[in-house]
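Re: weekly structure request thread

Next one in the queue (708 aa):
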Amino acid sequence: MTDTPAASGRSRARELARPFARARRGSAARSGRAAITGLLVTGLLIVGGGMLGSPPAVAAAPTPTPSPTPSGTVVLSASPTGTGLVALGAEPAFSVRVRNDTAREVPAGATVVSLSRTPLASDAEVAGWLSPDSGVDPAEGRAFDEVARADTDDLGAGDERTTGIGVTAESLGDLPPGVYPILVSGAGEVARTVLTVARPDAAPRTVGIVVPVTAPARETGLLTSAELGELTAPDGELTEILGAVTGTPAILAVDPAVTAAIRVLGSSAPESARDWLDSLMGLPNERFALQFGDADLAVQIHAGLPGPLQPTTLSPYADPADFRVSGSSAAPTVPETGALLSVGGIETTASDVFWPATGTAGGDVVAAIDAQAGPDAAALSLVPGSTTPGAAAAVRAVAGSADLLVYDDTVSRELTAAAAQTDATERSARLAAATALTSLRGDAPLLAAIDRPAAVDQASLRAAITTVTSTPAAVPASLTELRSAAPVPVEVAAVAAAEDRVSALTGFLDREADLARFATALVEPDQLTARERTSILQVMGNGWFSDLEAWRVAASDHDAATTTTLGSIGIANPGTINFLATSAPISVTVRNDLPWPVSVVLLAETDDPRLIVQRSTTVEAGAQQNTRVDVPVEARVGSGETDLQLRLLSAAMVPIGSTELISLTVRAEWESVGITAVVVIVVVLLAGGIVRTIIKVRRRRATPKESV
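Done, posted below.
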């Protein structure tokens, strides 16, 4: 289906209308000829009047008033109702929507549905018909018959209208099975879609569809309680996915980061999230685990990693109090990481299944996945059919020693687009295209995938699933059944590495090593290292492929956050200190901006022989606190300027933060000089007092004699 704007659609509408206008039959054709005859007679009468009547008086020509320019376009969309699949002799219906984005009213008229009785025979013809700008247009040389029409009223500026148009079996005629191009015209525009007539004698064929159960792309390791509450609310995205797959034979590809985020919260997880997890675990659908965060497998292999990255531990995200058993006096314990990451029971979960993002995995990637899994693991990779060109249609394949499941990415592309649609007409148009492509596959087995859409709608996702699993003669198969089929040898084409993503991952891992050394300063190093690993996996998630510009911003933000973390522990330089005593402590402030406590050693060193400094002092700094530390210093006799070098080390003797130099002004002899001066002053005062007292006594003794 295509939407044709008014700016370019009118001339194209007239061009496409010519073939089927000539092919109209019956009363429609006769009424058309009558209308043309009437127009010709009217034209002749007008011309005759001009010739036979008296010449009109010449009047001054009025100044023309410019017509208002439309501010937008008229958009026509059309699709068959449902999935565009009809049985022989059935009467299909079409949904036609007109949206008037102009400033003018669209006049009343008719909407016409026309059909070419020459079927489309290949994917290229279907693609060319639905997207005529993409290549050769198969409309050239085709005749179109009008099969239905509906009169329409005026459509005001800014308004929208959807019209249902049914096609009678008589108008449709005796169409053999196949995919037929449909042309819909109205309001001066045209739209294209397809109609598929089913084979009544279709042989049973195996079909399967993979549906990802993932959360939106994110930068941090695990979903928060608030985010889980939103995603598992009645209208939340995870609720939409679960509701769509329930009761279907879909194969689930589950991101273990979602299940872990719920389990790690224990009893503090939102009730809606716990209910959602219980429902997921209770589904009978076979499933497999994606990599944590649905991380990009291909970029990890292109970066030279020996195996896919895994979370180191998830215990830092857990609070043991949330796992306390009611009525038990035993200390609560957090489940092991493997249990937190589980996506299903043993009977429903397939192991060693890998699904690289579509278009990222070439022959080198699938070979590396097989080699990294080891000789005892039966690794299975899902790859798109576009990377196995020239191979016979097969779902189960093998490339060298690498086992593969090949999904039809052409069909999957239409299903993925349909799953994200909230508009019924747009959804049906996508499903009609998927149905047409599926029909062209004949009786061959088919595996499709809803390929990590940016968003989903429950009704649309369910319709996309049933488009594959409910087609005539379809036999839905589980992952185990698809895996057990005899493989067909294929060659997987080379796919160039995404150099920007490889470079980003390499940089993340280099800085992760820096953070691991830095984390030795923490009382619990896992608080930092575990979160860093999960964040790297999330930033490298496949969900970012729908918006690579947003991914670049996320990668830059992650790198900036790492820089901030590496500078979060340090020494606050007090500047110049006047040291006037022979022995006294110097106060130093150790800064900890992290939300976790740290334990470091403060080293103080100087090359000045006038100072004796306590070389090491253990510092226990609380979370997000500035801690004051007293460093004992003893000064020998002397004075002058000197420097004191301060630095921090972790318990593993890893330098933390930068080295700080403190300037000291030493006046250690001033203490002795001051004491001596005080003693002298005291002695002088005492001596003066004694002398004065003696003088007074002598005067008193002399006074009585003189009086007598």
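The chain has five domains: 6-53+66-197, 205-319+335-489, 499-566, 573-668, 669-708. Confidence is low (pLDDT under 50) at residues 1-70.
Next request, please.
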